[in-house]
Design a protein that fits this description.
The complex is a heterodimer of chains A (345) and B (64). With 345 residues, chain A is mainly α. Chain A has a domain of 174 residues: Alpha Horseshoe (Serine Threonine Protein Phosphatase 5, Tetratricopeptide repeat). Helices cover 63% and strands 0% of the residues of chain A. Chain A contains 15 helices and no strands. In chain A, helix 5 runs antiparallel to helix 6, helix 7 runs antiparallel to helix 8 and helix 13 crosses helix 15. Chain A is globular, with a radius of gyration of 22 Å. Chain B is 92% helix and 0% strand. Chain B is elongated, with a radius of gyration of 17 Å. Classes of the chains: A mainly alpha (345), B mainly alpha (64). The interface between A and B is medium-sized, with 36 and 33 residues.
Chain lengths: 345, 64
């Protein structure tokens, strides 16, 4: 999965909407992967069903499968029905997704193999979408962003999964946490996908509310920065940038302590920096509903399953990662399996 | 307490970073790096809990 800066796509109408840095001197977490600016104009085109069905036919979908797709739209929603059709047309992709659904650690490798072997942009879109979901399930938002960067750059306007890809892009940024970057993308999702599943739209509204409340709280901002630093340290980034962030936390904590003491001495209430934070939730709770691909809930079992595997099975997967895959995918999977190993400890 | 804990994590991070690359890359170095990340994670959790607790208190007071 390449991680070049976002380019090419609607370059003429893209304008940086880089959110202003938060005040109070707390470093706003920035993902280690490039995050393209939010497009001012909607880059998503209405779903072209005829084009999609023709692309599925190219992938090997039978007329019966395409007819079944049409019937399933009302039942399970457009995105899910479309994903089912692509899965039906490409059995190895279907098998890889089933492994993910079953919590099999080999799913990442199998999905990447399908991705590496195809030049078809529709299949690439669906594989990248599922890879991003898999990374998000394993608390790896940076690899999810990388997968979705490629989706948005190379596979846009091919599949009705576009809306969900846009939602999960914002979600991955929120999980970094990079609230300044996530917020405009959640808003763009709501604006550009008015017909998206109510489940996703409700979740986006909820996340916007949470982020806005948390941004008003210096303490939540501090916790956001620390979360990013924790992720940096997990990746052995102990250099000056990380140390500077850490020093800022101490300075900010000292400032908060002094503010509290001053308020107490004056017999007043709490320091203003802590309020109003409302009652923010730490995790997004997605409402029940239909019309989505896969399960929106986190499945923490992948790391456990990785730990439960025999050494020989883990070695087999590692060996496959190290042979035959393009270097960018190899690096991505090495990071992923390393992380699974750590999470299981 | 949070400030003290963060200072300790900062100190450990600096000490680890000052070690030669071959020491950091060795297994013991990796274990040490994981330990620092875990400690930073604990401080983060405490920070988040404090933020939530104070947020709830503010909300309760605001509702009175």
């Amino acid at each position: 999965m390449s991680r070049p800066p976002f380019r090419g796509l609607l370059a003429g109408c893209l304008l940086a909407l880089v959110a202003t840095a938060q005040d109070e001197g707390i470093p706003s977490p920035v993902p280690a992967v490039p995050v393209p600016p939010v497009a001012v104009q909607n880059p998503f085109q209405p779903f072209d069903r005829a084009r999609f069905e023709a692309a599925c036919k190219q992938l090997g979908a039978t007329p019966e499968q395409i007819a079944a797709f049409g019937k399933r739209i009302d039942e399970v929603g457009l995105a899910r029905a479309a994903d089912d059709l692509v899965r039906a047309a490409v059995p190895e992709f279907d098998a890889a997704v089933k492994k993910h659904e079953g919590g099999d650690p080999q799913a990442a490798l199998d999905l990447t193999k399908v991705l590496a072997a195809t030049q078809d942009p529709l299949l690439q879109a669906h594989v990248r979408y599922h890879l991003a979901r898999l990374f998000l399930d394993c608390d790896d938002p940076e690899n999810a962003i990388a997968a979705l960067n490629d989706y948005l750059e190379k596979n846009l306007n091919r599949s009705p999964l576009d809306g969900e890809a846009a939602y999960f892009y914002a979600q991955a940024l929120a999980e970094i946490p990079a609230p300044d970057l996530a917020l405009p993308r959640f808003r763009a999702f709501l604006q550009w996908f008015p017909d998206a599943s109510e489940r996703f739209r409700s979740a986006a509204h909820q996340r916007i509310g949470e982020i806005e409340r948390q941004q008003e709280s210096r303490l939540h901002n501090l916790a956001d920065g620390m979360k990013k630093t924790t992720r940096d340290l997990k990746k052995k980034r102990t250099g000056k940038p990380t140390q500077l962030d850490q020093e800022t936390y101490v300075e900010e904590l000292q400032a908060l302590i002094e503010e509290f003491q001053e308020k107490e001495n004056q017999g007043g209430g709490k320091a203003s920096g802590t309020s109003p934070s409302g009652n923010p939730a730490t995790e997004s709770a997605l409402p029940e509903g239909d019309g989505t691909v896969g399960n929106l809930e986190k499945r923490p079992s992948l790391a456990d399953r990785w730990g439960d595997m025999k050494d020989a099975e883990r070695e087999k997967i590692r060996a496959e990662v190290n042979k035959g895959l393009p270097p960018q995918y190899q690096k991505m999977l090495e990071e992923y399996y390393k992380k699974l190993g750590k999470a299981q400890k | 307490m949070l400030k003290f804990l963060q200072e300790r994590v900062n100190k450990t991070t600096k000490e680890l970073d000052a070690k030669p690359a071959e020491v950091r890359e060795a297994e013991a170095g990796k274990v040490e790096a994981d330990a620092v990340a875990t400690k930073q994670g604990r401080v983060t959790d405490l920070m988040r809990r404090l933020a939530e607790k104070l947020g709830k208190e503010n909300e309760t007071e605001g509702g009175r």
